[in-house]
């Protein structure tokens, strides 16, 4: 189509490279803003956000003296749920069962604290993350298209080159 409109072979060849570059730029920009927001909110004071509030907790997976994974749980007394948050495993240690062990720790915590269900939301693109949640017993309950991560400006260019799907999962532990 580009060649038909411009009659330029060079422009036709350069356009995909330009579009991929724009996608990379906006993806990187959004992710860095998101990380900056996370590092200046709950992750800046883990004790305040996850250790002090009742019904919340934070775990760290350590292997050979190195932190290889983290996960948090944040209780919501209004609907008697606990939210699994901030699950992350160092890329060098993925596929070794660490994420599953962290997930089970949150489920154990929820059961010990008499929560009726565990919920989570993820923007993970990798199917392995979704398979992990399902292997822990979570059911996929919905998708929010064009989700705005914290730090996103939602500018026209950002929306053109970077879109996020937000998947919601729920594991019912007992009747409410």
Characterise the protein shown here.
The structure is a single chain. Helices cover 41% and strands 26% of the residues. By secondary structure, the chain is α+β, with helices and mostly antiparallel strands. It has a single domain (10-172), classed as Aminopeptidase, CATH 3.40.630.30. It comes from Nicator chloris. It is an enzyme of class 2 (transferase). It catalyses: L-aspartate + acetyl-CoA = N-acetyl-L-aspartate + CoA + H(+).
Global shape? elongated
CATH topology: Aminopeptidase
Distance linking N and C termini: 57 Å
Low-confidence regions: none
Biggest sheet layout: 6 strands, mixed
Q: Helical stretch count? A: 6
Which architecture would the CATH scheme give at its second level?
A: 3-Layer(aba) Sandwich
Radius of gyration: 20 Å
Quick one: CATH superfamily? Gcn5-related N-acetyltransferase (GNAT)
Strand arrangement in the largest pleated sheet? 1-2-3-4-6-5
The helix content is 40-55%
H and E string: HHHEEEHEHEHE
Number of strands: 6
Structural class by helix and strand composition: alpha+beta
**Which CATH class applies here?**
Alpha Beta
Count of the domains? 1
Mean pLDDT comes to 92
Please state roughly what percent of the residues sit in beta strands, choosing from under 5%, 5-15%, 15-25%, 25-35%, 35-45% or over 45%.
25-35%
């Amino acid at each position: 189509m580009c060649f038909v409109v411009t009659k330029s072979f060079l422009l036709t060849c350069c356009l995909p490279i330009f579009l991929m570059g724009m996608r990379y730029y906006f993806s990187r920009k959004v992710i860095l803003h998101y990380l900056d927001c996370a590092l200046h909110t709950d992750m800046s004071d883990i004790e305040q956000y996850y250790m002090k509030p009742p019904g919340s907790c934070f775990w760290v997976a350590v292997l050979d003296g190195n932190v290889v994974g983290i996960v948090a749980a944040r209780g919501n007394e209004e609907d008697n749920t606990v939210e699994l948050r901030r699950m992350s495993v160092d890329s060098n240690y993925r596929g070794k069962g660490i994420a599953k062990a962290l997930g089970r720790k949150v489920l154990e915590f929820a059961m010990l604290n008499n929560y009726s269900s565990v919920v989570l939301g993820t923007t993970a693109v990798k199917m392995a993350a979704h398979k992990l949640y399902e292997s822990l017993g979570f059911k996929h309950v919905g998708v929010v298209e064009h989700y705005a991560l914290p730090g996103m400006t939602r500018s026209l260019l950002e929306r053109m080159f970077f879109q996020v799907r937000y998947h919601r999962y729920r594991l019912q532990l007992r009747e409410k």
